[in-house]
Amino acid sequence: MAQDNNKLIASIDIGTKHTRILVGEQEPNGAVHIEGYGKSLSRGVIGGRVVDINKVSESISEAMNQVNKRFNRKLLLIHFISSVSDLHMTIHNSKGRTPIKDQKITAKDIESALFSAAIPNPTNKQIIDTFVTSYFISGQDINQFELVPSPLGMEASGLEIITHNISISNSAINNIASAVRLANKAEVIDYYIESMASAAAILTQSEKNRGAIVMDIGSNITSFSIYVDGSIFHNGILDFGGDNINEIIAQSFAIDVMSAEYLKINYGKLEANISEKDKLISLEIKIQGKIVIKYLSSMDLYEALGEAYDSLLEKIKKEIFSIKNFKFQKIKSGIYLTGGGSNISGIEAKTRRLLNINVKKGSVNRDFINGEEKILADPEYSASLGLFNLWLQKQQVPTEESVTQKSDIGSKIGAWLKNF
């Protein structure tokens, strides 16, 4: 068990339904060991956004109290890394060029190209991530560029880069920071969007190289990240998640939403087994203050859940196929499902039939993290775990090669030599 609070780093995921905190320490081999964890019901959150700082701080405090009990002492954490969800997220791909004066490309040349590609902060937003997605170099003809995996040290007359910029509303960032500060007198040092955090937990670089999509199905939102040729290509977010599924089930059977969620968790699947017969499911519901027993057909439940998930998957499909310049055939690794909403039987098969592609539930890559199996194996914690991997990647960039850790254009270009 870690004894030095300064060596601890905490990830926080403030969701619509739950607030999750993981506390870890980096081991000598470079991996992070999860030392403690806490989970509380979220209050003051609507659609993944903080709307009441005081209530959110109470949820954070409750989760931290659980962490403290596992450490058997009160932790004075200094730094948090946080996931963030914002339906008003903006994605902007930009291009930067610079001539090469000394024939061989240096770190300063890449820095120059990066700042040439820099874009100003959108109104009322800030750029939380800037990732280099492609490098191109030119020979004698400055207008003829060739794609290369890494330009450092190569001979060229010019360098061009493409960057992927993610902007989040100021209020989304500032409200999380205020809630964490109020609850724990700590600072959030980095923010990452939820689907990219989940991808960092699940995908290997090989899977990114072959093309992959990570879909994170949360309570109120579903986010996704698309990787093509080893780099991030697109991030998206939909205002539809597990709670919307619950609402559809509640309306289908004329029951309350809590009962619908109970049915989904305890009896839910998206299709029956071949030999499975219909059976009655008993459900206690309250009508006019009295508890009565209602009986439902299991087959009717499967059908209703299947239709509800069809609605979600059709929305995702429409969003993905509307992305400019995206070629779906580039996705050879397939689709990886995660988040609490993916924890239902039959979702892989249904997604596979709809999109005609390999689909599986994502599992956490154990090369970068270890700890209690019940946390590592729970899809609800994918984003929380992935935050540690993103943090580790940032730490591994040599200081002399980093351009800047936090520039005034909002870029985290400390990892600019790495492929995402």
Explain the overall architecture.
The chain is α/β, with parallel strands linked by helices and 420 residues long. Helix content is 32%, strand content 31%. It is built from eleven helices and 19 strands. The protein has helices at 53-71, 107-117, 170-184, 194-202, 205-210, 242-253, 257-267, 298-321, 347-355, 373-376, 382-395, and strands at residues 8-14, 18-26, 32-41, 45-46, 49-50, 79-84, 90-99, 125-138, 145-148, 158-169, 187-193, 212-217, 222-228, 231-238, 280-287, 290-297, 334-338, 359-361, 369-370. The strands form five sheets. It has a six-stranded mixed sheet with strand order 11-6-1-2-3-19, with helices on both faces. It has a five-stranded mixed sheet with strand order 14-13-12-17-18, sandwiched between helices. Helix 4 (194-202) packs across helix 11 and helix 6 packs across helix 7. The longest helix is centred in the C-terminal third of the chain and has 24 residues, at 298-321.
Question: What is the overall shape?
Answer: globular
Strand content: 25-35%
Note the total helix count: 11
What number is the mean pLDDT?
Answer: 89
Query: Sheet bearing the most strands, described?
Result: 6 strands, mixed
Look at the helices and sheets and give the structural class: alpha/beta
State the low-pLDDT regions, or none: 398-420
Element pattern in H and E: EEEEEHEEHEEEHEHHEEEHHEEHEHEEHH
Distance between the termini: 32 Å
Strand order of the largest sheet: 11-6-1-2-3-19
Radius of gyration: 23 Å
- What is the helical fraction, as a range of percent? 25-40%
Q: Give me the count of strands.
A: 19
